[in-house]
Amino acid sequence: MTIKLPVKDIKGREVDEVELPADIFEAPINVGLMHQAYVRQMANARLGTHKTKSRGEVNRTKKKWYRQKGTGRARHGSRNAPIFVGGGVAHGPRPRSYRKKMPKKMRRAALRAALSAKAAEGEIVLVDKLDIPTPKTREMADILYTLVGDASALVLLPEANENVQLSLRNLPDARYLRASYLNIRDLLKFDRVIIPLAALEQITSWLGTQRSE
Questions:
Q1: How far apart are CA 197 and CA 195, in angstroms?
Q2: Within this chain, do residues 108 and 203 fall inside the same structural domain, yes or no?
Q3: Range of the domain at 140
Q4: 23-37 b/e with 16+ CB inside 10 Å = b?
Q5: In this structure, are 24 and 63 located in the same domain?
Q6: pLDDT tens-digit profile of 3-16?
Q7: Mean pLDDT in residue range 130-149
Q8: Does residue 212 have a pLDDT over 60?
Q9: Distance from C-alpha of 42 to C-alpha of 30, rounded to nearest angstrom
Q10: Backbone conformation region of residue 179, classed left if phi is above 0, alpha if psi is from -120 to 50, else beta
Q11: How many structural domains are present in the chain?
Q12: Same domain, 143 and 174
């Protein structure tokens, strides 16, 4: 079934109708693949710099605490042991890499699945163009409310647009993103995806299955 969506202007008026590319917006919705891509992206964003000191790294004396016998107390060596306050941490986190690998074809298939799910649920909004003459958060908030109501929105831009970017950055339920940087995390995070026609062309050019992977 072909998906056709109306194209709106920033006033919410329908000015055209566009047929979405079937290979991108009607792809199989593979939930497992989308989850794998999401986990990979979140894992790759981790720095892995966490670290605790072991008993050999804490700055305390290595001298035996008290003599071995005759005190009536348990025998102990240095006070660096993990059972003492100020001692080292046993089996604590160490610096490591959390990076996960995923083939490019799988990553792109996950994006197609996410876009197809959005299209099937009617969560994609097409606009002819998105631009304002000066940066105004209030004006941008009114535009988004006209297009998507109270829903959170991911705005895809075909290229850098300072006026739009400055107007969007203080809105808590909206985020702008270059279409070429489209990723699974932001697609799944927001209720609606606002796509200008120029951004749709970019998405079609690099996600379409007709091109060489």
A1: 6
A2: yes
A3: 4-47+101-207
A4: ebbbbebbeebbebb
A5: no
A6: 889 999 988 888 88
A7: 93
A8: no
A9: 19
A10: alpha
A11: 2
A12: yes
Start-to-end CA distance of the chain, whole Å, equals 25
Closest residue by Cα to residue 127 from 42, 47, 20, 9: 9
* CB distance 178 to 156 below 8 Å: yes
Radius of gyration of the chain (CA): 27
Same domain, yes or no: 80 and 43: no
Find the CATH number of the domain harbouring 178. 3.40.1370.10
Within this chain, do residues 111 and 157 fall inside the same structural domain, yes or no? yes
Judge if 85 and 163 occupy the same domain. Answer: no
Hey, what are 121's tokens?
Answer: 């649920």
Residue 213, in any domain of the structure: no
Tokens of 178: 């270059």
pLDDT at residue number 1? 60
Of 90, 89, 62, residue with least CA distance to 77 = 62
